[in-house]
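User: Structure with S-adenosylmethionine, tokens only please.
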Amino acid sequence: MTKKLSDPKNTIELIKQNQFAFKKKFGQNFLIDGRVLDRIVQGAGITKEDDVLEIGPGIGALTQVLCEAAHHVRAVEIDRELIPILEKSLSDYDNVDVINADIMDTELRDLYPGPFKVVANLPYYITTPIVMKLLESDADIESITVMVQKEVAERMQAAPGGKDYGVLTLSVAYHAEAEIIANVPPNCFMPRPDVSSAVIKLRRRSEPAVTPRSPDHMFRLIRAAFSQRRKTLINAVSNDVSLGASKAELEAALQELGLDTRIRGERLSLQDFSDLSDILTA
Ligand code: SAM
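Assistant:
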């Protein structure tokens, strides 16, 4: 029987035996708390019916728990040095494949023919690009349950008006419903990260939350509105010449929507941005 890696003693032993040195450049902070591992898998709602993509299995602590709960696990790990370690730590399971690749270069549609769920303790240096790749993918991804930096989780599920509300909030809201399911302190990892972490679950919508005439225009508008947060929406957006919207046009559009002409971008909902975009592209 392979030892459970959720016990930190076993993690340390495996790392020593294999003379493994943590690589900062790959964001390697391994989970060493069994309760957190269980909470992630339970929060993701994994059952024996589910196929799961894990990004960055490390030495396999979360992978082991996923193998117990899921039908099948496909784990994509960039670090070649971890592959022989994973072969050992996962040798008890015949429902797992480890792929040595960069997730950013992986064709997600090819991973499973049917629907699958994503579960991961993400490397923090590349969290947003990975989450956006998953959300924008045409692969049949049902949900994404991931450990991220606490601050990033808060930006993903922020409400309008606050400092956390911005481009990331609206990009996530367009594709998914976000819910923080656990807060995780640094001492649950080895080595300890400098920041606190949180597990967030993103349930992908079958249709986007709003249907502007041009989603591309709406997101360019959103980026312009938040590029200078302290400015009013009219000033920030009219400064972006590529959008071609004059102050007068923006003022008329806000009035048509019943919004204050001195409003800042952080007060607008995704629906407001969609409506504003439609007026400006009409
Ligand atoms: N899942 C393990 C755990 O919870 O203990 C390890 C999590 S660690 C925060 C992140 C993992 O992602 C590391 O194993 C790292 O080597 C891997 N990784 C980093 N960048 C990656 C990438 N672009 N593609 C795939 N894996 C990556």
